[in-house]
């Protein structure tokens, strides 16, 4: 073969291999970029946990965080298909050893003793790339459990306090031992001591002494053969290893740490400034309730300030009161920053702390004006689409009446443009006053409550739907809001506590007046539901709601419940009962649970609501009849971007009835609703700083109501809830989502299909009816659906 032919053959092989590599790179899921030529680099690191380990995903995530940085790779994903490893680190076996040490230390801190971690690696050669695959096989071993917990403090008073609060300890017998639990218990003890005057005591003064044999077992520096001997002796003693923990006190080096401190003078600077230091000779000074106020303006009333300071001159120092003072002024919103300086003073017969409270005011008022545009595709009175433009204004006053009372005045004016140019005119005005205390006819003790408030709300709105109706509404309410639960700085640091936010509205008045046109009355003759949708409505109700949540590790749970009762007492007035007053009891509850991982998360939601309607009204002929459903503005609805996403908004239900055809365009309302939602959310890539994410979701639920066939008193049985029909009545939708996360808000594009449509329950129970690629439902939403 000639030299030319040999060169040509070589080039042919070379370029064939190169093209094959390029093609493989394009198709491959993971492609390295900007790696060091000729050196092996980290391509993948895997941790495999063996055995039945509780919370294995969480443990895996924590072990991955213990890997040496040189074993971690930076992956950029494109559309979830192609992934790039940017600048993969050069492989070095020393990094494996360091990672193994870090992971072993973590397992010891979590109570696993004598864990076993084996590592292997192999290098694949892919066209001049030396891809290193690393695998750690982790066998955590048995979990060390607590046997006994004791307290042995040198100081008798500290010992008494520790034993008195022993029942609130987070360390319980037979529970797993972890260093974090021991640290949390030390923090709890310090909180107990500081709430009893021990201002200078800190974590250096106390320590935890553990069982000596087991302590050696969890010492990562101990020789492995010595660990085996100790482990053998421990197994002979007990089949399941346990540990004893005793909390003790270090020898005292500074005697002042064991002294109780008392509050001396308390000086308040209500309008402090970063630009100048207050001088009592140059500013106004006043004394009230034992507090000294130094100020240069009358922006705040002194009695109001004194009522929110909980550091009492002459009283024992209590850390809880220190933090409560800071939290009180911070939550009021009238100050941008709150600082409390404690200064020791030794010129008295007992240790004293002088407090200086500096309050830095925030701007008193804030005005926001915004312009919005919307597209209404679900209007119940038109089959077309309306384009709307609205102008919004919001004025916030953070210090009304010189007592940090917040007032919010908001106004809105909008128009909707349709086939007749201006289709709708809307205007609304609202005013809310938030008092930072309870205003009641009798005094209520609120020391155990966080951020108690009294809320007064006034709202009026006017809507003119040209040629159809004019609606005027007014709402006034008086209520209370508070948080019940321990503050974080005062909690016992035992697990997680449910902090509950309560709202009680004893007086809620809503009235809607509708002026109908002949065009609307003509539509009512065709669509019976319109007779109930657009009527004068009166609500005189009381509302009680509660929301709470707990976060533990990578899991978050949120619970919300609400009950509203209208007309319970005033309904006995015959004129109101037979008039426009609505009498009902409405209950609804929602539970949400999230499981978060570094690049993905699971989200679950369950919602249930029911309205018991027991009022009476007059029909068009003047006859007294029973009310069957909730007012339309209080009723349950399903569909849209935040509910059953395979259906347009208010287009699902009721039940499996065919009273409303799928293409009728009539809104559906119900007095009962069940809904369950599940989402698997995951990251895709980042484009120009915008996070692009996706999700796979399933929605299941429906609404139910009391419906009658047109022109009759015969009920539609498929519209009412029956447990025996639940399988047929439930609607199921599923789909996918594309989401653009701008950090401060999220745009969501959902595409869903009707997997089970109860409208076709008689045809294969409604499963997969008329499923086609383009026969889905598009939803545009802002933020996550739940």
TrEMBL record:
The keyword Signal applies. One of its GO terms (cellular component) is outer membrane. Gene3D superfamilies: membrane protein fhac: a member of the omp85/tpsb transporter family (2.40.160.50). Its main location: membrane. It is found in: Membrane. It comes from the Bacteria. The keyword Hydrolase does not apply. It holds the Pfam family Omp85. Residues 579-786 form the Bacterial surface antigen (D15) domain. The chain crosses the membrane at residues 12-31. Keywords: Cell outer membrane, Membrane, Signal, Transmembrane, Transmembrane helix. This is Bacterial surface antigen (D15) domain-containing protein. It comes from Niastella vici.
């Amino acid at each position: 073969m000639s030299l030319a032919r040999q060169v040509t053959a070589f080039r042919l092989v070379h370029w064939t291999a190169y093209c094959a590599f390029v093609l493989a790179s394009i198709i491959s899921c993971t492609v390295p970029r900007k790696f060091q030529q000729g050196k092996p680099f980290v391509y993948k690191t895997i941790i495999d946990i063996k055995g039945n380990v509780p919370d294995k995903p969480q443990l895996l995530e924590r072990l991955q965080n213990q890997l040496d940085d040189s074993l971690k790779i930076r992956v950029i994903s494109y559309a979830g298909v192609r992934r790039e490893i940017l600048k993969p680190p050069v492989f070095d076996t020393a990094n494996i050893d360091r990672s193994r040490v870090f992971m072993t230390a973590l397992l010891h801190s979590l109570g696993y003793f004598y864990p076993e971690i084996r590592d292997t690696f192999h290098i694949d050669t892919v066209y001049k790339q030396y891809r290193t695959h690393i695998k750690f096989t982790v066998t955590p071993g048995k979990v060390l459990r607590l046997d006994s917990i004791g307290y042995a403090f040198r100081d008798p008073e500290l010992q008494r306090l520790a034993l008195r609060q022993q029942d609130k300890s987070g360390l319980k017998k037979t529970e797993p031992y972890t260093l974090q639990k021991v640290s949390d218990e030390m923090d709890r003890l310090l909180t107990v001591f500081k709430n009893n005057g021990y201002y200078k005591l800190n974590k250096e003064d106390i320590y935890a002494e553990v069982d000596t044999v087991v302590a050696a077992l969890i010492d990562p520096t101990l020789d492995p053969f010595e660990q085996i001997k100790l482990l053998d002796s421990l197994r002979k003693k007990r089949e399941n290893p346990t540990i004893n923990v005793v909390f003790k006190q270090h020898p005292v080096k500074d005697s002042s740490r064991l002294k109780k401190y008392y509050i001396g003078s308390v000086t308040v600077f209500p309008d402090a400034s970063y630009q100048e230091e207050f001088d009592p000779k140059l500013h106004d000074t006043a004394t009230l309730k034992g507090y000294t106020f130094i100020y240069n303006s009358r922006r705040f009333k002194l009695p109001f300030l004194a009522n929110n300071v909980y550091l009492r001159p002459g009283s024992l120092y209590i850390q809880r009161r220190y933090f409560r003072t800071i939290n009180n002024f911070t939550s009021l919103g009238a100050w941008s920053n709150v600082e409390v300086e404690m200064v020791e003073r030794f010129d008295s017969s007992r240790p004293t702390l002088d407090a200086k409270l500096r309050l830095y005011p925030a701007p008193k008022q804030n005005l926001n004006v915004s312009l919005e545009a919307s597209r209404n595709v679900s209007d119940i009175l038109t089959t077309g689409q309306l384009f709307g433009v609205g102008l919004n204004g919001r004025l916030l006053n953070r210090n009304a009446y010189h007592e940090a009372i917040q007032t919010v005045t908001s106004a809105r004016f909008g128009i909707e443009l349709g086939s007749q140019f201006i289709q709708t005119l809307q205007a609304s005005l609202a005013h809310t006053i938030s008092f930072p205390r309870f205003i009641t006819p009798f005094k209520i003790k609120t020391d155990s409550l966080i951020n108690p408030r009294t809320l007064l709300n006034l709202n009026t709105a006017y809507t003119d739907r040209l040629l159809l109706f004019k609606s005027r509404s007014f709402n006034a309410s008086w209520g209370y809001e508070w948080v019940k639960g321990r503050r974080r700085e005062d909690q016992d640091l035992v697990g997680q506590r449910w902090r509950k936010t309560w709202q009680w509205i004893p007086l809620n008045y809503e009235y809607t007046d509708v002026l109908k046109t002949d065009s609307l009355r003509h539509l009512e003759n065709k669509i019976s539901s319109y007779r109930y949708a657009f009527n004068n409505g009166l609500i005189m109700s009381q509302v009680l709601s509660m929301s709470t949540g707990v976060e533990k590790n990578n899991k978050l749970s949120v619970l919300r419940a609400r009950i509203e009762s209208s007309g319970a007492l005033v309904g006995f007035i015959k004129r109101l009962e037979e008039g426009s007053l609505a009498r009902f009891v409405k209950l609804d509850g929602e539970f949400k649970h999230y499981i978060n991982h570094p690049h993905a998360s699971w989200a679950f939601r369950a919602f249930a609501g029911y309205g018991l309607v027991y009022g009476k009204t007059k029909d068009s002929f003047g006859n007294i009849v029973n009310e069957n459903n909730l007012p339309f503005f209080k009723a349950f609805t399903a569909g849209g971007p935040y509910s059953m996403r395979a259906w347009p908004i208010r287009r699902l239900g009721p039940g499996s009835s065919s009273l409303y055809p799928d293409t009728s365009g009539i809104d559906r309302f119900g007095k009962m609703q069940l809904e369950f939602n599940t989402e698997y959310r995951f990251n895709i890539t980042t484009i120009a700083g915008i996070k692009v994410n996706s999700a796979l979701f399933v929605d299941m639920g429906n609404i139910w109501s009391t419906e009658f066939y047109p022109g009759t008193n015969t009920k539609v049985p498929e519209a009412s809830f029956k447990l025996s029909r639940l399988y047929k009545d439930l609607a199921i939708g599923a789909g996918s989502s594309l989401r653009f996360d701008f950090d401060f808000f999220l745009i969501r594009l959902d595409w869903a299909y009707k997997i089970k449509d109860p409208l076709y329950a008689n045809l294969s129970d409604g499963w997969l009816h008329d499923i086609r690629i383009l026969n889905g439902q598009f939803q545009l939403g802002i933020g996550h659906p739940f």
